[in-house]
Amino acid sequence: xxxxxxxxxxxxxxxxxxxxxxxxxxxxxxxxxxxxxxxxxxxxxxxxxxxxxxxxxxxxxxxxxxxxxxxxxxxxxxxxxxxxxxxxxxxxxxxxxxxxxxxxxxxxxxxxxxxxxxxxxxxxxxxxxxxxxxxxxxxxxxxxxxxxxxxxxxxxxxxxxxxxxxxxxxxxxxxxxxxxxxxxxxxxxxxxxxxxxxxxxxxxxxxxxxxxxxxxxxxxxxxxxxxxxxxxxxxxxxxxxxxxxxxxxxxxxxxxxxxxxxxxxxxxxxxxxxxxxxxxxxxxxxxxxxxxxxxxxxxxxxxxxxxxxxxxxxxxxxxxxxxxxxxxxxxxxxxxxxxxxxxxxxxxxxxxxxxxxxxxxxxxxxxxxxxxxxxxxxxxxxxxxxxxxxxxxxxxxxxxxxxxxxxxxxxxxxxxxxxxxxxxxxxxxxxxxxxxxxxxxxxxxxxxxxxxxxxxxxxxxxxxxxxxxxxxxxxxxxxxxxxxxxxxxxxxxxxxxxxxxxxxxxxxxxxxxxxxxxxxxxxxxxxxxxxxxxxxxxxxxxxxxxxxxxxxxxxxxxxxxxxxxxxxxxxxxxxxxxxxxxxxxxxxxxxxxxx
Length: 595
Description:
The chain has about 600 residues and is of the alpha+beta class. Helices cover about 45% and strands about 25% of the residues.
């Protein structure tokens, strides 16, 4: 360039780059040619004025397509007055640089947003890369650990020698790297943390090992949780294994089958079987009867949807166990069911015995109260009658009455003594019936009846008593015993005692009947005494029943009759002698199975 800074010459590349336009500027001032690029003019002037060489990277923007081109301009002074300008188009390389820079920034972004530690070490173990997560875990400021030794600062003393020894052997090619490895690190504040590492070797030129790069996950909390979970599972397992209750574990499969997957030793002991032979098998195949129950369906519902069921009738077939189980069944995880159970056979037996004992105690107490009330009431009546008869006898004697007048009162006293004797006997018999098991054997009905009729007539020979019989058989047999006489006596005494007619009429009939193709013997005792209202007919055989409304007062006799008839597998009931006219007398009917 001359003093006017005019374009002196150009090469073919400049001609090509300007598409031939440069020839039009040959000999023109540089100010005209570079009027849109003042920074070129500035460097041109600086090179010429200061006589120095310059190197500048310049961006040239296009007004048409808004793109940029990048050049390196070499400004070289050629004495005495020329400046040689060499321009090199570096757009392609610049774009590559921008791309690499973008990728690097993106990589740094990934590194710093990653939720794992990214760590790179050189051959000496110095840190050459550590991402944001790594600094957070180690509690250092970003960049603070670059070129610091990893093993000196970040590995606990008790572990440092071991870990560094492994690292040096890997770096020297004497040991293959372990891709996954767990080891503790120590933070700036002294906190020990467990890291799970994934490791790779870094290679340089000629495939030489230049370091390692690792990604690490802080598993301190996870490890702590897993450890506690394992401890909890071990405790739970020990509890299950040592608990006295049996444990069954079931899995509901996709096909809807409930499979047996485990049990504890107590289950074997209770059910007397080895659960291992059932593992993995379908419950429907193992316990077919159980699988047909509603309980099995509830088991599957609980395994699928959750819930709880308590049952005292869990029973398995195909097992030596014979008893009753109480079970508690609940879901432990989706499609899994646990059943806790225990043998309650002995408990139920004991409860049943206690219940029976309480029932017997209540019966005994009520019986004692009944005997007391009955005895006191009837004895008072008897004594009252005797006392009244004695007073009348004394009065007649004091007034000089005829001795025959006393015979009536002596007769009354005698009847009351007999009544007291019968009362004592009946109470004794009723008590005896409650305590003993009767011996049942074949007995005849007719001969004991005839003897009883004669005995009753002898006792009441002073009364106008007529007893008719309709017995067309020599003898008939049933299952019973000598207590049949007590049935006869109580029915006859009852008819006489409550009869106020001048003539006491009793009719006894025995016949054979068939009920539902079974043969029975039917006995009928009919009287003309006070009747029993319909409302009381079903209640008269209860031990504590008393009728005192002007009709009969039913004492202990019919209770004895009912109890004996029941022991003989028979039945007894009462009807009106004349239909719908209870006041004209009763008809007692007994039936017994015929032999």
